[in-house]
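Handout, section 4.2: multi-component inputs.
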Amino acid sequence: MSIQVENISKRFGKFQALEPLSLEIPDGQLIGLLGPSGSGKTTLLRIIAGLETADTGRILFHGEDVTRVHVRDRRVGFVFQHYALFRHMTVAQNIAFGLEVMPKASRPGAAEIRKRVSDLLEMVQLGHLATRYPAQLSGGQKQRVALARALAMQPQVLLLDEPFGALDAKVRKDLRRWLRSLHDELHFTSVFVTHDQEEALELSDQVVVMSAGRIEQVDTPQTLYAQPDSRFVLGFLGHINVLQGEIQAGRLSQGDAWIGLPESTLPVGEAQCYLRPHEVRLQLTPEAHAHLPLRISAVSLIGAEVRIELEADGWQSPEPWEVGISHAQYNEWQPMRGDRCYAVPDVGHLFTSEAGEPELIQWHKKKTQKSVERSVLQQAVGA
Amino acid sequence: MSIQVENISKRFGKFQALEPLSLEIPDGQLIGLLGPSGSGKTTLLRIIAGLETADTGRILFHGEDVTRVHVRDRRVGFVFQHYALFRHMTVAQNIAFGLEVMPKASRPGAAEIRKRVSDLLEMVQLGHLATRYPAQLSGGQKQRVALARALAMQPQVLLLDEPFGALDAKVRKDLRRWLRSLHDELHFTSVFVTHDQEEALELSDQVVVMSAGRIEQVDTPQTLYAQPDSRFVLGFLGHINVLQGEIQAGRLSQGDAWIGLPESTLPVGEAQCYLRPHEVRLQLTPEAHAHLPLRISAVSLIGAEVRIELEADGWQSPEPWEVGISHAQYNEWQPMRGDRCYAVPDVGHLFTSEAGEPELIQWHKKKTQKSVERSVLQQAVGA
Amino acid sequence: MRTASHLRVGDQPWVKWSLISLALTLVGLLLVVPLVAIFAQAFSGGLQTYVANLTDYYTLRAIGLTLFVAALTVPINLVFGVFLAWLVTRFEFPGRKLLITLIDIPFAVSPVVAGLLYLLLYGSNGWLGGWLMDQDIQLMFSWPGILMVTVFVTCPFVARELIPLMQQQGREEEEAGVTLGASGWQLFRRVTLPNIQWALIYGVVLTNARAVGEFGAVSVVSGNIRGETNTLPLHVELLYQDYNVVGAFTSASLLAGIALLTLLVKSFIEWRQMRQRAALSEEEV
Amino acid sequence: MSLAITSAISLNPGKRVLPGFALSLGISLLFISLILLLPITGLVVQTAGMSWQEYWAVISDPRVVASYRVTLWAAAFASLFNGLVGLLLAWVLVRYEFPGKRIVDALMDLPFALPTAVAGITLSALFAENGWYGSILAEVGVKVSYTPLGIIVAMSFTSLPFVVRTVQPVLEDLAAEDEEAGISMGGSDMTVFRRVVFPSLWPALMTGIALSFTRSLGEFGAVIFIAGNMPYVSEITSLMIFIRLQEFDYAAASAIASVVLLASLLLLFAINLWQAHYLRRIHGR
Amino acid sequence: ADQSLLNSSYDIARELFASYNEHFADYWKNKTGQTVEIRQSHGGSSRQAQAIIQGLRADVVTYNQVTDVDVLHERGNLLPADWREQLPNASSPYYSTMAYLVRKGNPKNIQNWDDLAREDVSSVFPNPKTSGNGRYTYLAAYGYAQQVFGDDQAAIDAFVRTFLNRVAVFDTGGRGATTTFVERGIGDVLLTFESEVNNIIAEYPDHGFEVVVPKVSFLAEFPVAVVERHAERNGNLELARAYLEELYSEDAQRLLAGFNYRVHNETVQAEFADQFPPLELLTIEQIAGSWESAMTEHFANGGKLDQLQRR
Ligand SMILES: Nc1ncnc2c1ncn2[C@@H]1O[C@H](COP(=O)(O)OP(=O)(O)OP(=O)(O)O)[C@@H](O)[C@H]1O
Ligand SMILES: Nc1ncnc2c1ncn2[C@@H]1O[C@H](COP(=O)(O)OP(=O)(O)OP(=O)(O)O)[C@@H](O)[C@H]1O
Ligand SMILES: [Mg+2]
Ligand SMILES: [Mg+2]
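Output:
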């Protein structure tokens, strides 16, 4: 079932929680609503569900206007952030609830309900916990019960508010995986809210980035990551290294630091260059197109790459820089806190005006060159 | 001030929270107590502080037995997990508390107290919030007030229970950095509790890994990561890809999967090979020393590397595998959910007996070869 | 909750035991001895006199009336309390805070004044009273009047028990119920009620205790007709005025007995709740 | 108020997701109007019939003023006493385990459940010079029954639970870490209690004391039996209302009642405001 | 029952009317063949009157104060102004007077009103503001002072003020005062109706209380009246009248005397001569002119009583 959001807006008292916004959600997709706290994600989701009424605008399900339809009759599955399980009912009773309160005419028989509940329990792999109470479940188990409960009525739209917000990193990852496969299997249209970029990028077909009641960008995770529309989206999707400076004579410079800009018609004035951690290399000497002296402030060994945290040296950066190097490079170089080095960008996002989209700057057109460069660096480091 | 923990044990009712354990903390170090929930970290910390009494053993501060000394007189700074700020006092009053309740004889004068408080506020960069109440502060600010309060009495030992547990990832990172620099500056002996491996490895001079009331390993972060003593430590320090199989004819194999083992005197029988995500490469064809067929189940773009999640294909793995590839490799290869590929390990940790230390297996002695291999892969992928 | 092993203020044995003894002494002097005194007086004439006093026609009538009024008061305030709590905890609307404050008025009003308020309104000199008189409807000095003031005096109890609890529980479970298609009644019976049942029972218990024991307000509007509008507390006073001290204390002991029973039921409820919670958290994963 | 509410409903008909808004609003408003507001308007109408001078003359009659003084002082002492004892009892009940704790806890509500007249009769018997307590107190030269002290005793008895029951939950919620923090910074138990624990209890304690105070202001049944009722010495304001009623002077009775009512409401209101302010600081927002 | 009648009465007349109602029910059955049920309402008589004004539908009132019946006429117009003329003896079938109850052996030797103003004597009687009983006591003392001091108003006031100052406890009702005196052991003398004093002695035989009847006292009338408006409405007018008239019958008078009330029936008077010593009885007319003026001058808000109690 496709969902259309047309011109929806909402204010709470004097506070405009949602500016008028529109959104198109194709049938069968898994959509992530991503944004910082207070950006209106929950509000939008609740409006789609019918738990909140919009001040203006319409909601259409499959082309049909449901704006005035009561939640009870919209038949959406809604999974609440803190599960909202009925704490006095067992897991099985929780799941059966939606079926049992159906009008007599359409309600399945008791045996049929039992069967459906046990199927659902199988599906969420909780068959052995049917008679437990919610208080006796772990967070992840609760979340799965909440999902099963919402799915019991075979909704065509599934809405989830921070479904994994309250869970441990590990459980979260498991459940994320599981939700994805469930979605692929059952083909409903799902919208989920999250403030975790990783989650949104990993799970969604499309990500809706929200900020301050507005939609900033709607795109597939890949596009979103590669071509962020705005400073906000770029900054929100992971750590960002920033050089804030003045454009003059083909260079963006501040203090001791500068980067060369490709010869284009750039206006003179303030600008920022945003650099993703993996778009930057570290070297012991500066390169021709960039001079960014840094001092290592921390080294973090964990994970796929070694994360180096750096402080600007001879210039100012609002936040420390971060660059990832491979374990191999780490073993070779053995960087220590206090060491000096230079950052060399491959790709950068240049913002010149206050708002507006960034300009993509590529110092090295051919990607395959990168690994060559890298071994050069390693030799340099080894020396 | 050095801390010695000698033979400390503790039971709650029938439950042995701490087996008798000993630990030596040299003066001026920053020590992380790392372990899963319920492993006894908090209990040990509270015993060191004197907030809990041990059943057996002694605690020595700087060689002096303080086991029978009341918390009140141990003069340790203790930072509680949820800050435990006094809600009815302003920030300044909170910080001044410890000074104001000193016995009359040793208590500094009112002016001196004011001065010290304002110095501390400067130190934690909260001078402008002196008259706020805790409820009006963000989590990170609260944590800094809690720290300042604990430091007001110039303790030589600072104990912190999950100091960053309740904070956002971002704030957490900032505070972590800040605590490190504070520690370097003031030179007290600090012990902090965490269940976050990343935090422990990044922040500590030495990490004490605990599990089920016992100390598993005490080492510097580097050693810990490179040479974990046990299955537990290895598994606890990040994601682990496991091949569980049978050793036969120089191979560890299970179903379609096998890895070749260097000709050493390995007994025939059950064994597991543990592989860290960055110690494995992905290829479209198997290598001579390993045949590990996998199917991609998810691709995560965020961060320094692209994280690929894989399912065992033709064999069984209790948990999905994870391998990190570079963004460059990702752009080249464009892996998709459902694609098949092979994992090739460079280094592995082989466990043969139930307990016992792992055997380090290295298929490629020379590290610098790795990048060469990599470009080979890229060509293979590119084809 | 691991209270047992925390280092807390006042945990030294000598502080602890001296405070406990002080508290027990105070409880003994302030609460237990008066209670004992009531029963001592009631039984001062022997068991036979006690039974005789208890089974006196007018005493039985007073017990009957008291229970009758309580039996009506409780459901009225139950329904009202539940609706009010539902209203103020489940909806936002202007005047919500005012409503919550209004409900406390009976706590602030002296019972005698409460009786007076009703008399001024419904007595035959009051504004409604004249009209009622013409319609031949007698509210004051008959059981409806007693019922009305009792309802007035006891109306905060149920609502006051429910409001904080329902506020704390939030409306998510009900919202979940609605998304699952439950109608209003189904929602209340199957989702809300099981969650508030103990608080509800506790509110009922308190309402009942107060309804049974109300004296000041009832005495103003009762008319003191023996066997008709004489509630048990009024009967105590009447017997007392009538030199029948033992009889008075017999009725008083009955009221004290009801009070004790009420408290017992209340403790039992709390105990069950606690056990339930303990059982749940024990099995928690 | 009700206008504002109805306009809010009509503005946004489909707004509420949970069912029963109109029904619960209707029932609550109906009930509140009939049971609470209507009778109070009766009082207002009665007093409105008097001129301001008449009103003032009634409420400033020296004997009435003397009764205010007696009532205020006695209520103040009673509620202070309850503040102390209530805090002690709540502390002991929350912090310590001892045999019989559940019984003591249950007994706490006895004064609520016991009819005030019964309490009054019993207390005056206990404290009379030949009573159990009175005879002991007489030896040290203290007279309670028939003195202003008796008023205090009766008032404290009937309003004791307010303090205990408001302080108890707050005490239960106090985080152990706060105390540990205080102690680990070198504070003695007394210091930590005074500076850390007590300020957290303070709002609840104040509320309990205020409730106890307002309840004492209005107490009638329990007090008249033990007070002695000497003009200017031990007459309470409720008795003055009662006397005016005996004189068939409803207007005067209403006038005095309005003073008590207003005082109670103002106090409750002030306490609510103060507490809201204090709690806002503590809980933020 | 064929008919039922509501009698609103004062608080300590429960036993009295319990007996009388039995007597009357028999009488009525014999006379008319109808069974009648009499319902009783007891309470402080002012409060009782007030309840009737506010709508309590009593058919007859049997009070211990004339003013409380008057008020039914004045405030509610429920009975005619001349209700006192409708039955013999100004509608007061029995009467009593104020007497003293003293402790065993009369240790303070209390004999008359001036003893009550002595410094070493403390007395107990109910609050004149809330109780008719107290009002009579006050009036009796005042009448005595008038007799002694004649026209010297200052001396009268001084005496009564001292008398009031000697009071240890002002209970709100007669019964409370009795409890205070008997059970709490407060005071040397309890002032109350003669009828009550004797009841108390009967109730507490082992205390050894003694009765002292002062030489001069106040005529306490016990007025009865039909609340005509209500009785009419209830269809009970005839029954109500009969109920009150029967009080004057010899049998009823004997029954009343049995409850220690003085009665007018001469045969019965003679039978009970030992129990009721003769004394000088002052009437309200002698003391204050009329009940009306007594109320406004003495008991109204700010009246003589208030002035004498002011400190
Ligand atoms: N009922 C309400 N009354 C007033 N303001 C509200 C209400 N509900 C939400 N808001 C405000 O609207 C804004 C958006 O709220 P919303 O819950 O949609 O944010 P969110 O993006 O879900 O944030 P979070 O990640 O913290 O859940 C917030 O500033 C919030 O304070
Ligand atoms: N007072 C107590 N009574 C009973 N058991 C206790 C008590 N305190 C701790 N325990 C138990 O001792 C074990 C260790 O507790 P501890 O709090 O030290 O764990 P932890 O490592 O700090 O865990 P977490 O990461 O969850 O804080 C746990 O199993 C806990 O349940
Ligand atoms: Mg939200
Ligand atoms: Mg812990």
